[in-house]
Specification:
Shape: globular
Low-confidence stretches: 1-29
Largest sheet: 8 strands, mixed
Helix content: 25-40%
Length: 581
């Protein structure tokens, strides 16, 4: 993503490094004065776009401002000996075709699938010597029902039907992710041929309608209603409802009571890994290893990827067409097209000359909802957390629940709503929602022997706090201490195991990774900012009012998450446009 960057660049290119593997490889190189396509930002979507374009014969260069590739999908050794997936930390949503087309396994991608995948321990104070209950969910439906029956036999019976219901909706929406939305601009203002072509993009929508059939009204409610309303129709036990509701609010400044929160839940359950629908896993070596594999695939076909080379401006010809970029160091690089993996706000409000964009378009971009509740805390520990609800093994080796997404302060949807209300008042949540993951439980290469890396994805923390407070070192540490106190209640001894920590509040996520407002999706995944309207109405097909400039990041359809769909879809739109030039 574009921002300041200095010093000599590192270039990753097939011509200079036929045996390149991994982000640790370094080489010096000179820029060419011209490419067919330039990609701004080496986030995973930008890398995917470059890999596809290069395979289609489009000579492509990627420029990244940071010294590491991957955008938010990076591995960084913040604390010596501990390798963190510093921002994004789990994989599921990456489109299956991308694995195949880019031959990611051949280029070194290795995955650790999680089963079980979800663990929600209870506090249940006052139970004497009795071990508190917990809810452990995995791929074994009979075992899931047994776990749920601790809280409600009725819910245990309903759970398979709920899963089938949600899987059908995910199946219906799946084709929409792999194609540009209906080109409303072409349909409204284009030639007859353009209008006919735009009609062909209705096919995935019609397919979705056929899959959902007579149940379409119930599915419509899932997408538009508060997730609590949806879950209340299926279940009665709060631990189950709250656990499921976390997927509806994670990364979003919404409450389970917010209308439309059901779509965010669907967004997080419609992935899969290695043919297993809904599966989530860890990438061997951290999320940066995924970015390495995509880069390796791109460079093997001739693409060039430059780090510490920030783009300062998109260049526009006198005829109003993109003709390349200007780098922060003053270098000019010409190209026929420019794809931006930066956010819509950075792309159009900072990098693009304002005189070439309509005022109404600029106004819509400036008003995008980018609120984020997320503070990510990366923690190095010298032993595994020891949960009251699931005590550790005598030898300290990882147990099944340690590989899960561990949900803390998630026993009740009311807890999640109260945490949200705190943020609406400009306060960090008094009892934050915490998703705790321990990727080193399955991938020991991430930490020294006996030690572990812990990812804490927490919310709700407002970007701007009440009372004029700012996210300085004192406020960061005060919030992290509160989070650690919460974990200590579930797993006594956790605080004593901490070797070091890396605290990333919403302003930090914005500054380091270019996420506007700290929003992991670039802009909110609300119904008014999806599909036809992402990022804004009439410009959802990766194109924009300036000819030759395209969005290929999370701010474009189908949105955020480590999915790659925006990059792949944008590359195909760009290739079609280049053929017609």
């Amino acid at each position: 993503m574009a921002a300041s960057g200095r010093g000599l660049s590192r270039v990753i290119g097939a011509s200079s490094c036929p045996a390149w593997r991994g982000a640790h490889w370094e080489a010096r190189g000179r820029l060419k004065p011209e490419y067919d396509a330039v990609v701004i930002g080496a986030g995973h979507n930008g890398l995917v776009a470059a890999a596809y374009l290069q395979r289609l014969g489009v000579n492509t260069a990627v420029f990244e401002r940071r010294p590491v590739i991957g955008g938010a999908a990076v591995t960084e050794e913040i604390i010596p000996g501990f390798k963190f997936s510093r921002a994004s930390y789990l994989l599921s949503l990456l489109r299956p075709q991308i694995y195949i087309d880019l031959e990611l396994k051949k280029h070194g991608l290795r995955l650790h699938l999680r089963n079980p995948y979800s663990f929600t321990p209870m506090l249940e104070e006052g139970t004497g010597n009795k071990v508190p209950r917990s809810l452990l969910l995995g791929t074994d439906m009979a075992e899931n029902q047994k776990q749920i029956a601790q809280f409600s036999r009725r819910d245990a019976q309903a759970f398979p039907k709920y899963e089938a219901f949600m899987n059908r909706l995910a199946l219906a929406i799946d084709p929409l992710l792999d194609a540009a939305p209906v080109d409303a601009e072409a349909f409204q203002r284009g030639s007859l041929l353009q209008r006919l072509k735009s009609l062909s993009t209705l096919k995935p929508l019609l397919q979705a309608g056929r899959v959902l059939g007579a149940q379409l009204p119930q599915y419509y409610q899932v997408l538009t209603a508060p997730i609590t309303k949806v879950l209340d129709q299926w279940f009665e036990s709060e631990p189950l409802k709250a656990t499921l509701a976390t997927d509806a609010v994670i990364g979003a400044m919404t409450s389970p009571h917010t209308p439309g929160s059901g779509y965010v839940l669907l967004h997080h359950v419609m992935g899969g890994l290695e043919g297993m629908q809904g599966a989530w896993g860890y990438v061997q070596g951290g999320m940066g290893a995924l970015s390495d594999a995509i880069t390796s695939s791109a460079t093997a076909h001739g693409a060039s990827v430059f780090t510490e080379k920030a783009v300062a401006k998109v260049q526009v010809s006198s005829e109003g067409r993109v003709q390349g970029v200007v780098l922060q160091d003053g270098s000019e690089v010409r190209s026929k097209v420019v794809l931006s993996n930066a956010s819509p706000q950075v792309t159009f409000l900072k990098l693009t000359p304002q005189e070439w964009l309509p005022e109404e378009f600029m106004d819509r971009i400036s008003r995008l909802d980018t609120q984020s509740p997320v503070t990510k805390i990366n923690v190095a520990v010298d032993r595994l957390p020891d949960f009251l609800a699931a005590p550790n093994a005598p030898g300290g080796q990882p147990l099944p629940h340690h590989q899960c997404s561990i949900h803390l302060n998630c026993e009740d949807t009311l807890l999640l709503h109260r945490a949200f209300e705190d943020a609406m008042d400009g306060l960090p949540s008094h009892r934050p929602m915490i998703e705790l993951c321990i990727p080193s439980s399955l991938d020991p290469t991430l930490a020294p022997p006996g030690c572990h890396v812990v990812s804490l994805f927490t919310q709700y923390t407002p970007y701007t706090m009440a009372g004029g407070k700012v996210w300085d070192e004192q406020e960061r540490n005060a919030y992290a201490d509160k989070v650690f106190d919460c974990i200590e209640a579930y797993a006594p001894g956790f605080k004593g195991s901490v070797v070091g920590r890396d605290i990333l509040t919403p302003p930090d996520l914005e500054r380091i990774f270019g996420l506007p407002g700290g929003n992991i999706f670039h802009c909110a995944m609300t119904l008014d900012q999806l599909y036809f309207a992402r990022p804004v109405p009439l410009y959802s097909s990766y194109r924009c009012p300036l000819r030759g400039l395209y969005l290929c990041g999370s701010g474009a359809h189908p949105g955020g998450g480590v999915m790659g769909a925006a990059g792949r879809n944008a590359a195909h739109v760009v290739f079609r446009d280049l053929k017609s030039m």
